[in-house]
Specification:
With about 350 residues, the chain is mainly α. It has 13 helices and no strands. The radius of gyration is 30 Å and the shape is elongated.
Length: about 350
């Protein structure tokens, strides 16, 4: 990132805002697809996403990764796991939005960073800093308060948070680009999704052809809704620091939360406000700790570079002094040779 120009960083920021903004506003889209049910919408999303990404990859002629992936069974297995957990995530999210649970869905993405940290401790044996432990503790307290507030555990939020955290963990191990990864995952999803849509059509329950061309176009647009934010995110990820992306990620749940309250008019009794306030406190602790650690790391890096530069300068000075001493000795030896008396001839 150090070599990224200001213009490039500006483009990256705009793409980051676009990506998280679209993810934040997507609750406005899913209700437009009614009377299609959540599973039918999900199946269309899988099918049309693959079609769109395949066209994009065909256009840029980027297929070499597919052959390499097919020769790596472990990576293929991880891609299958990623496809399974993102299927759960997408399906629950679509159902939650169309069932009037937008606020609870937004909570899932608020607590996702806390779940990711907890999974890092449990699965990867990572060590946490005190502020991170405090954030996880406050997050757990928030879930307890929200459980009391809802009269049940906030299962929609928990499923979304854990499925997305698992997805992120698997994606890290697969190490594929955003578009390539989406192509591989939707390729795994494609046949079951297409099979379900064909079965639905044979049963006479498909809305794709029954609700007119406008409805069919909206169902096909699920591919765009999936792929476009991902492309913008990819453009942002290579241009802006990870700390900036970490802050931008809160835009999506903030937009979703505001939509749930102001547009969908979902209820927010005091105990839910209390639970959300605890979640936001936990995220504030995480953000403060991340920024402080980033500043310390940057200072340490600058100090290391300065010390390296000083060491190089000292070494160069020593070499210059050595060259000067050598030159001086050579000159002295030459003068002594000239001053020496010639031997007498016989």
């Amino acid at each position: 990132m150090a070599g990224t120009s200001r213009g490039e960083q500006r483009i990256g920021l705009l793409n980051g805002f676009a990506a998280y903004g679209m993810w934040g506003l997507v609750p406005l889209f899913w209700p437009l697809l009614k009377p299609a049910g959540a599973v039918e919408i999900l199946a269309h999303r899988m099918v049309w996403s693959l079609a769109l990404v395949a066209v994009a990859l065909l256009f840029v002629r980027r297929w070499a990764w597919a052959g390499e992936l097919l020769r790596q069974p472990r990576k293929l297995a991880l891609i299958t796991v990623a496809a399974a957990v993102i299927t759960v995530n997408w399906g629950v999210y679509i159902w939650a939005v169309n069932s009037g649970h937008v606020v609870e869905a937004s909570l899932g993405y608020f607590i996702n960073p806390l779940v990711t940290i907890a999974m890092g401790v449990l699965l990867l044996k990572e060590r946490l800093r005190p502020a991170q432990w405090a954030a996880v503790g406050v997050g757990f307290a928030a879930v307890v308060v929200l459980t009391v507030g809802y009269g049940r555990p906030p299962w929609i939020s928990l499923v979304l948070a854990f499925s997305f955290a698992t997805y992120g963990l698997v994606k890290k191990k697969v190490n594929l680009g955003g578009v390539e990864s989406l192509a591989a995952e939707t390729a795994v999803q494609f046949l079951p999704a297409l099979g379900y849509l064909l079965w639905l059509s044979a049963q006479g329950d498909s809305t794709f052809t029954a609700e007119g061309p406008g409805h069919a176009a909206l169902l096909a647009a699920t591919g765009l809704v999936t792929a476009v934010p991902l492309v913008c995110f990819g453009a942002a990820a290579i241009r802006v620091p990870l700390s900036t992306l970490g802050l931008l990620q809160y835009l999506a749940p903030v937009f979703q939360f505001l939509l749930g309250i102001l547009y969908f008019h979902e209820a927010m009794p005091p105990e839910r406000w209390a639970g959300f306030a605890l979640v936001w406190l936990a995220l504030a602790l995480l953000t403060w700790d991340a920024l402080r650690t980033a500043r310390r790391s940057a200072r340490a890096l600058r100090a290391e570079r300065a010390e390296t530069a000083r060491a190089a300068e000292r070494a160069e000075t020593a070499r210059a002094a050595e060259r000067a001493t050598t030159a001086e000795r050579s000159e002295t030896a030459a003068r002594d040779e000239k001053a020496a008396p010639l031997d007498a001839k016989p």
